[in-house]
Write a structure and sequence with these properties.
Strand content: 5-15%
Order of helices and strands: HHHHHHEE
Strand order of the largest sheet: 1-2
């Protein structure tokens, strides 16, 4: 009688154990269920707007972090050139436009004492040209920053699968008119879904 009770007790304990294990497993699965994450498409518009707001931010959005120091080094160099050329332009311009009223007038800077009127005019024109070119190159760098962010964002999802291929192979061209074969090269392009190699 005791062995029968022990067997029934074992069955009841095992049943309760499996029911509890099954229910907790079911609850934990339903509690931790999360819908699969869909990959948000990379937006070229967003990358361009980011670079428009702050140069280099579009490159950060595209995860091309190595380009950010290059952009800021370019802006730093161009800023230095603008500053230096502006100071020199103002100094030459001030010396060129200075007209002494009498002999006791003090010259505005050392350039007036060193250079002739023609040299002052040439120096003024030279530094004004360099200053304006520096501004133009700064604008060009800013536009290139925008273009780079936009193009890079467009090409980020570009498929570069091994099925995209270019083959250059030897080919013999048959010339039936002259009854001869001419050696040559054939270039073949394979793009999946459009055309491939035979």
């Amino acid at each position: 009688m005791i062995p029968v009770l022990l067997n029934r007790l074992k069955i009841i304990i095992l049943t309760v154990f499996f029911v509890i294990a099954f229910l907790t497993q079911g609850w934990s699965q339903s509690d931790s269920f999360k819908p699969p994450k869909t990959k948000e498409p990379h937006s070229a518009h967003k990358a361009t707007i980011y670079s428009l707001i702050l140069p280099g931010l579009g490159q950060a959005y595209n995860k091309k972090y190595w380009k950010i120091p290059v952009i800021y080094a370019g802006f730093g160099i161009l800023g230095y050139l603008i500053s230096t050329n502006s100071e020199e332009y103002k100094a030459y311009k001030t010396a060129y436009e200075f007209v002494p009223v009498d002999e006791n007038d003090i010259s505005p800077n050392e350039y007036y004492d060193i250079y002739s009127k023609e040299q002052l005019k040439q120096g003024r024109d030279y530094y004004r040209r360099n200053m304006e070119l520096s501004y133009i190159f700064t604008g060009f760098l800013y536009i290139m920053n925008l273009v780079d962010a936009s193009v890079d964002a467009h090409l980020l999802d570009f498929d570069v699968s091994p099925e995209l291929s270019l083959r250059v192979e030897p080919y013999i061209i048959n010339q039936p008119i002259y009854n001869q074969n001419i050696p040559g090269l054939r270039v073949r392009v394979g793009i999946p879904g459009i055309f491939g190699f035979n």
